[in-house]
Amino acid sequence: MPIILGSKAPERGSYAIAAVFTDKGVSFVPKTLFWTLSKTDGSIINNREDVEVETPAATVTIALKNLDLVLAAAYDLFRIFTMTGTYDSVLGSDLPILMEVAFEIEPAINVP
Q: Is 13 inside any structural domain?
C-alpha cells in the first residue's frame, strides 16, 4: 500500500515529489532510478512510465506539471507515483528500490 501524501496537487499546476535514499540511516546514491505516474487502476498518466532519472542522487526531486495533473473525471482524484531502481550496499549489489506514494489532485474550478 502506498504512503498517502498530505498535500494536494493543483489540477494542471505543478507538484514536486522528493525522495531521500538511506540504508540503515546512511545516505546512498542509486545505481539506476526510474519513476512511473499512474491512476489507482494502474493506467499510465501522460506516458510517464519507467522515466529514467539520468543523474541519480541521494536526494531526488521530480517535478510533475500540467498534463501530469489533469483530471479526466471528478471521481478520479488520486495518482500513484512509483520509483524503482537498484543500489549497492554492504548487504549486496543491485539491491532493489521500490517506493510508492499516492497523492490527491485538487480540481480547478475554471479550467476548460
A: yes
